[in-house]
Amino acid sequence: MKDEVKDGLENQPEQPEKNNEYGASSITALEGLEAVRKRPGMYIGSTDVKGLHHLVWEVVDNSIDEHLAGHCTDIWVTIHSDNSITVRDNGRGIPTDLHPKLKKSALEVVMTVLHAGGKFDKDSYKVSGGLHGVGVSCVNALSKHLRAEVHRDGKVYEQEYKQGKPQYDVREIGKTDKRGTVVTFSPDPEIFETLEYKFDVLAHRLRELAFLNKGLRLQLVDEREKEGDGFKTELFYSEGGLREFVRWLDEAKTGLIEEPIYIATNEESVDVEVAMLYNTSYSENVISFVNNISTRDGGTHVSGFRRALTREFKKYGDDNGFFKKINFTISGEDFMEGLTAIVSVKVQEPQFKGQTKGELGNSEVLGIVSRCVGDALKVFLEENPGQARRIIDKVVLAATARNAARKAREMVQRKGALTGGGLPGKLADCASRNPAESEIFLVEGDSAGGTAKQGRDRHAQAILPLRGKILNVEKALEHKIYENEEIKNMFTALGVSVGENDEGHRVLLTDKLRYHKIVIMCDADIDGSHITTLILTFFFRYMRELIEKGHVYIAQPPLYLVKKGKNQRYCWNDKDRKEAQMEFSGGREDDDSVKVQRYKGLGEMNAEQLWETTMDPATRILKQATIDDAVEADRMFAMLMGDEVPPRRAFIEANAKYARIDA
Q1: Annotation marks residue 527 as catalytic
Q2: What pTM did the predictor assign?
Q3: Is 523 known to be catalytic?
Q4: 525 noted as active-site residue
């Protein structure tokens, strides 16, 4: 991606309107804001950190819509020192003339009426983003304070609001030769559980939007953090769009083909854009979007893509005799192994399924995507026989490995592993048979496992010691993992097993899960961090459902014990340690009577200490493993645990200042 951005609201010649004039009559009002503050979760999903960031996306979506309509080239997002946010663009500016029906300024209507905006008028926007469609009025309702400023028709207008209520009528405050909209808002502490914005979360989404909207420049500034002579700033711009996106996703993987297979076409008013690469890994990574919004659960556009891919590659392999020597069936899953693909469609009236609206339901899109992708793949296969053969060889390898994995699963299942028949000898099980109150600790090493067994609550806590570093599943064929003793023990102890659905895809069977809390407990040193990462890689690749359902946690053993006489305090970071030292010494830095013990391993604590610091539900600290962003998670695991060294080295160099290296 290129670091390119322009300063200020840009002077731009007026562009011709693509359909009707974009004015107050284009703003359609559907309903008021009455329920938003009472039930914010219905409108933004939650009031936690995810809901807090959703406010930014609703405002940015308006600017993206202007870009999609051909009127905006730059978007600026600023996090201010007080965690308020400013989003501005160089689009046409929200109309300010009187709404013909409501007799109010169109700006006030957009800001105070739910579902009011140009995106409901097909002449203003052919397609628009916004997953929930509640728009900036919802942001206004959930903000302690919001100010909207519009540069339009040579004039500057403004209006301010408190908790969604206008403080005065829209007023003209000056002249301008610029254009665009500026929205500054402060989330309401009465609504949100946290008010602190995360730079990395905002940066990741803006990077994604730059890839999805080639030619659009986005800038993120964080005024909470100094960098050089200014503030921390990141710029996002992409000329290659999805081609660059898929290469960025695959930078830590070894490629099979030289350039991404790229498809961009329009059929029946649906824009279809696809970029795909094959690599030597054993995982599939298909990312999908509808109108720039991530569809985590896929939908008809992904189904159409999979159908076309399987159909065309299978026909090509059959026609050229590449599958003749295989004595088992090639399945759709075999064509997806080692594939990284982005499927993006733009639909005028998207219909989403489910509570999370993460799955596209438009039935007509399946056939459109299937035809468009199928036609493009036929051309690619005919024009690139060498690359096509490499992909087919990969498919054959995947099919062979899948068949071997099935046999390996069947063999260990017959012996009782993977089905819960006969628990591992190392497992110290808990007395409870209620999964909801039971938890299992996956403990690094037999020594720490023995200490944990002595210190645990025997009613609800089970202990499974793991010997050394488990297999790195990022580099292993699937059938190899079922031969690994530590991984077999985890399957058996947890009570989960592996099967296949009707399409031949591997599925995790969790109906007999024995514990609803799975706690990874490793030493607080470099080796312990590596083992934790290996276990998390295994869960992400082969038991992702357990992470998604909130069952996986990471224990946080203390780093230090600070003592003076009978006084002692456990500390989990250097800041806490320094505070404890200063408190115990009365502010003296040279007090030799204050002793600091650095814990490098769980084995350095006795059973009582391990219980009260790391295992006691009343005092312990657990971090829940979550997948907020599957795209970033896949990329991170591939980079940290895969074969490519340069991306991993670059990551370590960039983050080395945060690492704690033990002497």
Answers
A1: yes
A2: 0.75
A3: yes
A4: yes
